[in-house]
Amino acid sequence: MQKFGLFHEQWQPKVIAEMNDYQFKVVNLQGDFIWHDHKDTDETFIVIEGDLRIDFRNGAVHVRAGEMFVVPKGVEHKPYAQNEVKLLLIEPRGVLNTGMWAASGQRSRMSGSERLSSSNDVV
Amino acid sequence: MQKFGLFHEQWQPKVIAEMNDYQFKVVNLQGDFIWHDHKDTDETFIVIEGDLRIDFRNGAVHVRAGEMFVVPKGVEHKPYAQNEVKLLLIEPRGVLNTGMWAASGQRSRMSGSERLSSSNDVV
């Protein structure tokens, strides 16, 4: 996942590939996020580097490098990374502005122009 | 991707997770496959271990561990692995019996019962 060498910002997913109506996004996370859910879609986390904890209202999972986890639609969750984590996220196109990232209090809403988009890139 | 420790067969994808209507499958490949395409869907290859070559009618790509490639729908391709490659495949549910795996001359068609299926597993 060499694309991680191209940016260092945290909490700013970059679209690196698309499959049908889905997007693959790389992102660096560190710290605590807010509780949220996605009403219409599952969300896939594939951890490339580091340890991600995903809290649920009734527990938590630890997802480590080389592991993946699918959060089912409608399930409230809160990602947390004590140290920086590099992730590959898979979501349908369009989730960006209604889900996780736009909901952050600390981080500004991403505009389309901030995204690195390429439709069939090799990571 | 510890699930690879659970099986050693080649060319037999195992479903390890699902996201909406999509399935994540792990598979070991070695050798040459046949030319084929998927009329209705893109197909995503994420290489976990080894080097995969995907031949196209007008060239080839090499996809190495930690890299991914999306083959666009309708594009003829032929995977090739000189040495064993461990892959994560992402395809819509139902592609199994019409695409790559069923088309193999050497390998028998997979029946549903041969699949390891779990809907929200951690790899």
Helix content of chain A: under 10%
Structural class of chain A: mainly beta
Rg calc of chain A: 13 Å
**How would a textbook summarize the main sheet of chain A?**
7 strands, antiparallel
What sort of overall outline of chain A do the alpha carbons produce when their principal axes are compared? globular
Biggest interface and its residues per chain? A-B, 28 and 28 residues
**CATH topology heading of the domain at 2-7 and 15-94 in chain A:** Jelly Rolls
Count of runs of 4 or more consecutive helical residues of chain A: 0
- Low-confidence spans of chain A: 97-123
Order of helices and strands of chain A: EEEEEEE
CATH superfamily name of the domain at 2-7 and 15-94 in chain A?
Jelly Rolls
Number of strand elements of chain A: 7
Global mean pLDDT of chain A: 80
CATH architecture of the domain at 2-7 and 15-94 in chain A: Sandwich
Portion in beta strands of chain A: over 45%
The end-to-end span of chain A amounts to 5 Å
Per CATH, the class of the domain at 2-7 and 15-94 in chain A reads: Mainly Beta
Oligomer: homodimer
What order do the helices and strands come in, and which of them pair?
Two copies of one chain form a homodimer.
Chain A: E1 14-19, E2 22-32, E3 43-49, E4 51-56, E5 59-64, E6 68-71, E7 77-92
Antiparallel strand pairs in A: 1-2, 2-7, 3-6, 3-7, 4-5, 4-7
